[in-house]
Design a protein that fits this description.
This protein has about 350 residues and is α/β, with parallel strands linked by helices. The chain has 15 helices and 5 strands. The chain is about 45% helix and about 5% strand. The longest helix is centred in the first third of the chain and has 24 residues. It is globular, with a radius of gyration of 21 Å.
C-alpha cells in the first residue's frame, strides 16, 4: 500500500513539475499567442461577439470600450498577419467553448499577403492554441511538410528559453486564472505617427488568391452551418490600390451570399480619424484612433443586431476588470510621457 501511494505521489509530482516548467517556458506574446491562450479562460458561452483576423483586430477594436459603452461581451481572437486558412480552424475552435451571435472577420491579411505558406508571424498563430485534431489539421495546411517540425510539437521550440525568461513568464499558471480571464485580446498601441491619407482609384476585383478564396468560402459556409451572423470588414489603416483589388472582390462575394462587408477605409471622415494623431504606424491605429473606430463600430453593431447588455450581471465582472486594466495602462503611459 505504501509503495502504491509513493508511486502515485511521484507521478503526480512529476506531472506538476512538468506543468510548472512548460508553463514558464512556453512562448508568450500580446500579438496572437495571448489572444489564443486567454480565450480558454473565458466563461463558457459568455462571449456574444468574436472578432477575428490580423493584428488590425486586436490593435484597432477596443473591446473594453465596447463593454463600457454598449455592454457588448466581445473578444479579439486574432493573430498578427493571420491567413484565412488559419482563421478557419480558429473559427472551429471557438465553437468548442463559445456560441457567439456574431463573428466579425477583418480581411487585411488576404488583401496584403499572397503566399500559400506565410511564415513571418506564423508563431503568433500557432502557439497559445491547445493541441487537438483541429490544431493538427491547421498545421497541415499552414506549414509545408518539410518544415512542420520547426513548429511542432511546441515543447521542442521553447524548451531552451531559459536565458529569455522575465517576470511575465511566471504569471500564467492556473491559479492566475483571473488575470487571464480579464484579458479580452485588445492590445493598444500608444505611439502617434502622422500618416498621409491614401487615395484609392483601383476598380479591379481580382485580389484573392485561390487558397484565400477557398478558405473564405469555408468560413462563410461554416458560420451559416452554425447559424451565426458573419460580418466582413476592413478595419481602418493606410490602404493601397493593390489592397483594393481584394476588397473589391470580397464586396462582390459578400453581395452574392447576402453577407455584410464594410470597408471602413471608405469612412475615415465619418469615424473622425485624424491622420496626424490617430495612427501608430501605416498599418495600425493607436489607442486614441482605436477608441474613435470602436465607437463608430459599436454604434453599427448596436443598430445591426440587438445584443444583450451584460453590464452588472454575475459572471461578467471580468469585463469591468478589463476596462480598468486598459485605463490604468494608458494613464500610466501618459503620466510617464509627461
Amino acid at each position: 500500500m505504501k509503495k502504491t501511494v509513493t508511486r502515485i505521489a511521484f507521478i503526480l509530482l512529476l506531472i506538476f513539475t512538468f506543468y510548472i516548467i512548460s508553463t514558464v517556458l512556453k512562448l508568450k506574446s500580446l500579438h496572437g499567442i495571448a489572444q489564443k491562450d486567454c480565450f480558454y479562460w473565458q466563461p463558457e458561452n459568455s462571449i456574444d461577439v468574436v472578432m477575428m483576423g490580423s493584428s488590425h483586430i486586436h490593435c484597432n477594436i477596443n473591446n473594453a470600450l465596447l463593454w463600457e459603452k454598449y455592454g457588448i461581451a466581445s473578444y479579439d481572437y486574432s493573430g498578427a498577419e493571420q491567413p484565412l486558412w488559419m482563421t478557419y480552424y480558429y473559427l472551429r475552435e471557438i465553437y468548442s467553448y463559445q456560441d457567439p451571435e456574431i463573428i466579425v472577420l477583418d480581411l487585411y491579411s488576404p488583401a496584403r499577403f499572397k503566399e500559400d505558406y506565410q511564415y513571418t508571424w506564423i508563431s503568433e498563430n500557432i502557439y497559445g492554441m491547445r493541441f487537438s485534431s483541429n490544431k493538427l489539421q491547421m498545421l497541415l495546411v499552414s506549414v509545408e511538410p518539410g518544415k512542420i517540425l520547426n513548429y511542432f510539437p511546441s515543447y521542442r521550440i521553447y524548451h531552451n528559453r531559459y536565458d529569455e525568461l522575465n517576470k511575465d513568464d511566471f504569471n500564467h499558471f492556473f491559479w492566475d486564472s483571473d488575470h487571464m480571464e480579464n484579458f479580452k485580446g485588445y492590445t493598444p498601441y500608444l505611439k502617434q505617427e502622422p500618416q498621409i491619407r491614401p487615395e484609392i482609384t483601383e476598380k479591379r476585383k481580382d485580389g484573392l488568391t485561390e487558397k484565400s478564396l477557398k478558405y473564405l468560402m469555408k468560413i462563410i459556409d461554416y458560420t451559416k452551418e452554425k447559424d451565426t451572423t458573419l460580418i466582413l470588414i476592413a478595419a481602418p489603416y493606410i490602404t493601397t490600390n493593390e489592397d483594393a483589388r481584394t476588397f473589391n472582390q470580397i464586396k462582390e462575394i459578400a453581395s452574392e451570399y447576402d453577407i455584410t462587408f464594410i470597408n471602413f477605409n471608405d469612412y475615415y471622415d465619418e469615424i473622425g480619424l485624424d491622420f496626424d494623431t490617430d495612427f501608430n504606424d501605416d498599418s495600425h491605429l493607436n489607442y486614441w484612433g482605436s477608441c474613435k473606430f470602436t465607437e463608430y463600430f459599436g454604434d453599427f453593431l448596436s443598430s445591426y443586431l440587438v445584443l444583450p447588455d451584460h453590464r452588472g450581471q454575475k459572471d461578467y465582472e471580468s469585463w469591468d476588470e478589463c476596462v480598468q486594466s486598459i485605463k490604468n495602462y494608458v494613464n500610466n503611459y501618459v503620466k510617464n510621457a509627461n
